[in-house]
Amino acid sequence: AALTAIIEDFTREAGVRHLEREIGSVFRNAAVRIAERNVQRVTVEVQDLPAILGRKKYEAEVAMGSDIPGVATGLAWTPVGGDILFIEASRAPGNGRLILTGQLGEVMKESAQAALSLVKARASTLGIAPQTFEKSDIHIHVPAGATPKDGPSAGVAMFVALTSLLTGRPVRSHVAMTGEISLRGLVLPIGGVKEKVLAALRAGITTVMLPARNERDLDDIPADARAQLEFVWLKQVDDALAFSLSGVPEIGLEAPKA
């Protein structure tokens, strides 16, 4: 348990160099305790680590259980592994502006614009009044605003968050998703599948939605991780709505089977 805590709370890297240093610090502390107490062995517990290594350096994002429409859980790749990414959407009276915050890069901003265009194109099917867009400003925010973010793979999560907001149907909190979207509503393949899936598992996610064209990457994921997750393969953005939105379906989409 202590070793797992060192990995998850005190190191976050692509290799093991920093992990090796932290384990060395624990061993040196244990050696001092053995010498001072004249004992043969000591046990290092999780609660001992802050006294040895200091405060936790990393906090894992935990999947948010929320009944508020407009929040979707995405998956991100980082140089030190995967992470979950919350996409938050809100609406206020306005004149049709799209506001984007959270240090988003150009590609991610374009994904948000594409997601909004898709929602507008499907407004009648989704039960959204057309004047909603003309009389509202829509704000998309990705928390951890001090961290720059970019890439196209949040497109599906942005589309789901916007649809959730404008239909009033919350996103199931145990579902996370990743995938690039096209203006035709196609879900396109992405990279970093292994890292993203493992991040979802760490965060307590039970269902992961991935592009259908990434199904071949499933073999890269450890078997024990695959066994703990349900995978939903997306060809169209409409597939994501059927499996992620809670409440009684009102938009002609097939609801997920229990």
H/E order of the elements? HHHEEEHHHEHEEEHEHEH
Give the structural class: alpha/beta
Number of helices: 10
Rounded mean pLDDT is: 87
Distance between the termini: 34 Å
Gyration radius, in Å: 22 Å
Q: Given the C-alpha coordinates, what overall shape results? A: elongated
Q: The biggest beta sheet, please?
A: 4 strands, mixed
Query: Helicity range of the residues?
Result: 25-40%
**Runs with pLDDT <50, length 5+?**
249-258
Structural summary, described in words:
By secondary structure, the chain is α/β, with parallel strands linked by helices. It contains ten helices and nine strands. It has helices at residues 2-10, 17-37, 49-53, 106-121, 123-126, 131-134, 155-167, 193-202, 223-227, 237-244; strands at residues 71-78, 81-93, 98-101, 136-141, 175-177, 180-181, 187-188, 207-211, 230-234. The chain has a four-stranded mixed beta sheet. 31% of the residues are buried.
Helix-strand layout with pairing:
Blueprint: H1 2-10, H2 17-37, H3 49-53, E1 71-78, E2 81-93, E3 98-101, H4 106-121, H5 123-126, H6 131-134, E4 136-141, H7 155-167, E5 175-177, E6 180-181, E7 187-188, H8 193-202, E8 207-211, H9 223-227, E9 230-234, H10 237-244
Write a short abstract of this structure.
Helix content is 37%, strand content 19%.
